[in-house]
Design brief:
By secondary structure, the protein is of the alpha/beta class. The chain contains eleven helices and eleven strands. The chain folds into three domains: about 70 residues, Arc Repressor Mutant, subunit A, CATH 1.10.10; about 100 residues, D-Maltodextrin-Binding Protein, domain 2 (3-Layer(aba) Sandwich); about 100 residues, D-Maltodextrin-Binding Protein, domain 2, CATH 3.40.190.
Amino acid sequence: MDIPLTPLKTFHLAVRHQTFNRVAREMGVTQPAVTQQIRRLEQAVGLKLFQRDGRRMVLTEAGQTLQVFAQRIFQLADAAVDALEGVSGLQTGQLRVGASRTAGAYYVSDFLNRFKRRYPGVRVSLAVGNSQMILAGILDFTLHAGLIAGRPEDPHLTVLPLIRDRMLVTLPLGHALASKRVLAIRDLRDSPLVLREPGSTTRGLIEQAFRTAGAVAESAMELESNEAIKSAVADGVGVAIMAHAAVAQDLAAGRLVGRPLRPALSLDFALVFHRDRVLSPVLAAFLALLPKGRKP
């Protein structure tokens, strides 16, 4: 059995993107050309690799088996490119980093700017999405590393605690609770809550704090961005619990009021990368520039 490399690359991208249209755009070919490459690979291995489930293309058992090896092959190919670029003293190369929404908005840019000043010839790209999307990119080797809230337990990942930020109760100007210097969860029981969407690490942290206090975090509004939450709070929709970095400028400008919680509530961020990824010179250089994390 001789597995042709170009069809294998096409197959690998099809599994990653879940659509032949996106593969065609990335490869600069037509969709029929993508389909042809997949058929060529199936003919070479003598097995069906995809089957249709309605409109979705689903991997067969043979496809699942082949993807495990394809992922390793192209991760090693990327590592070889990284290593060769590292030989030139990081005058060229690429660093692909992901960040969850809060991390992408308030933390990661400082690290990337520091890296770019140190290695101006390296191309730096940042993907921002929810934590699940970033972890998926790390696990399929699309991303070198990601900065996310929380500490994932996946055994395939190396997790480096990096940032701990305190959470503040965020209030509109003139709110009755603003007269207190420190708040407890019980103080918020009668206040409508503006929360992040279900599945958000921040929301999970808040819900756990309420459960510990014997209360339920019932949302008056659910929003997917910190900026939208701050606008809702400023408009009097409710109160929120947010990371200090997310509201620091608004507090300094007098647009919102922030009060700490007792017991204190913190949001931890970690840098995550694949345990099996070859530590390329580019990734090693990025890790070397990071501050030593504060472990929870």
